[in-house]
Write a structure and sequence with these properties.
This protein has 197 residues and is α/β, with parallel strands linked by helices. 32% of the residues lie in helices and 24% in strands. Strands 1, 2, 3, 4, 5, 6 and 7 form a 7-stranded mixed sheet that branches. Helix 3 crosses helix 4. The longest helix is centred in the N-terminal third of the chain and has 17 residues. The two termini are 20 Å apart.
Length: 197
Amino acid sequence: MSAPPAPPILLASTSPQRRAILEQLGIPFEVVTPAYEENDEAGASPSELVRVHAAGKARSVAAGAGDRPVLGVDTAVVLDGKAYGKPGGAEEAAEMLETLGGRTHAVVSGLCLLTPAWEEVAEDTTSVTFRPLTPRDIAAYVASCEWEGRAGAYAIQGLGAGLVERIEGDYLNVVGLPGALLIRLLADRFAGTYGFG
C-alpha cells in the first residue's frame, strides 16, 4: 500500500522565485497571500527583522491552514550592518549596486515553519561577493529592469549572475528561499513525508 500524498505546504508569499524553488525541490505547496504589514523596529538587527517578518507572514495565514504546515520567508541583503531592501526606483537601484560593487555582502533569510502544534523560526546566511562594477556595468543592469522588486537591486538567477564573483553558502537562499534550511526542518519534523529524512 502506498503512502498517502504529502499535504501541500501553505506558502505565505506571492514571490515567483519562492514558488519556483519549491517546485524545483518537489515540495507540494499552495500559495496564500500573507495579511502582514512589515514594520521595522528601530534598532533591530537585520537578522532579528527577517525572523520577525517570516514568522509574521506565516502566522497571518495560519488560521485557514488546518493541519497543513505554513511557510513564511523574509530575506534581506546586508552590508556593514545595513539592510538593503527593494529599491524605489532606477536611481536608488544604481546607488545600491555601486555600494555592493567589489564587496562581499550577506543575504540573510528568516524562515518560519509552523503547524497548530509547533512553530520553528530559523535563519540562514549566504555570503555574496560582487566583482568590481564600472558605471557602464551598473547602467546596463539598471536598464534591464531586472532589479525591480529585488532586495539589494539584483537577481542572481538572471542577468544579475554577471555581477557576482563568488558565493559561499546556499545559492537558493540568494534566489529567495533558504532551501537547505527548509529541507533540514522538513526532514526533522516530517521525516519521509516530503521525501527528506
